[in-house]
Amino acid sequence: MSANLSDTTTKKSALIVGVGHTEGVGAAVARRFAREGYDVTVFGRNAEKLATAIESLKAINPTADGRVGDVTDEATVRQLVADCDRPEAPLEVAVFNAGGNWPKAYLDMDAEFLTDMWKVNALSGFIFSKAVVEAMLPRERGTLIFTGASGSLRGKAMFGGFAQGKAALRALAQSCAREFGPKGLHVAHVVIDGAVDGNRINSLLPDLKEKVGDDGLLRPEGIAENYWHIHNQPRSAWTHELDVRPWAENW
């Protein structure tokens, strides 16, 4: 049983936002918690991709649910969190896995592009985490995990828009952890430093997997195992930031 759960709690809920195809990080994290008996809800913007994730979830736990919507819409997000935080199955785990990564040359970027990238990567993280903290705080327990990226730590050429949004999300996660960790909430930020062996990368770069070799890409199931581990850490030794990458990654 997770160190964050009370002995009297028999049902638990987990909410993962930013879920797409079943071969992705969000869906893998959802399945990991579903296998432990959590009532899992997944949220994404693409109904077709989300349907594949829900199908794999229901095969593990028939109570799994899925919602389609915009994570930057505060009213939608707050209602989603409220629906997942039920007296018979309180929200114990919330994962912010949303984001957008669109390359653009520095001189081609404008204020509108930067603002949109900030909204989907950082503002939505604040909207989600605020609603989650308000739900968990009265119980003084719960786990909130933000998914970061290489861009959280450094900006590459062509990816200034993505990097500024992810760096802002990382700073928000740090502030959230420092304010609410002492109040019983475990807030963590996971830096996914490398390409993920999922639907997106394998569709856009079909030859990459063969090029990098065995275990050269991050496997979603391995990432999900780290999220599960974070949730179960004793509070005397909580991790705030964890970076994960393939063993062969040049970092």
Would you write up a description of this structure?
The chain has 251 residues and is α/β, with parallel strands linked by helices. Strand 1 (13-17), helix 1 (25-34) and strand 2 (39-44) form a beta-alpha-beta unit. Strands 3-2-1-4-5-6-7 form a seven-stranded parallel sheet, with helices on both faces. It has helices spanning 25-34, 47-58, 74-84, 111-136, 160-180, 199-204, 208-212, 220-231; strands at 13-17, 39-44, 65-68, 91-96, 143-149, 186-192, 241-244. The protein is globular, with a radius of gyration of 17 Å. It has a single domain (13-244), classed as Rossmann fold (3-Layer(aba) Sandwich). It has eight helices and seven strands.
Write the layout of secondary structure elements.
Blueprint lengths: L12 E5 L7 H10 L4 E6 L2 H12 L6 E4 L5 H11 L6 E6 L14 H26 L6 E7 L10 H21 L5 E7 L6 H6 L3 H5 L7 H12 L9 E4 L7
Parallel strand pairs: 1-2, 1-4, 2-3, 4-5, 5-6, 6-7
Helix pairs in contact: 1-2, 1-8, 3-4, 4-5
Helical fraction equals: 40-55%
Strand content: 15-25%
**Count of DSSP helices?**
8
Strand element count: 7
CATH superfamily: NAD(P)-binding Rossmann-like Domain
| Sequence of secondary-structure elements | EHEHEHEHEHEHHHE
pLDDT < 50 stretches: 1-8
Widest β-sheet, arrangement of strands: 3-2-1-4-5-6-7
Main sheet specs: 7 strands, parallel
Span of the ends, CA to CA? 35 Å
Stated plainly, the CATH topology is called: Rossmann fold
Computed Rg: 17 Å
CATH class: Alpha Beta
Q: Tally the structural domains.
A: 1
Q: What structural class should be given to the helix and strand makeup?
A: alpha/beta
Mean pLDDT: 91
- CATH hierarchy: architecture: 3-Layer(aba) Sandwich
Shape annotation: globular
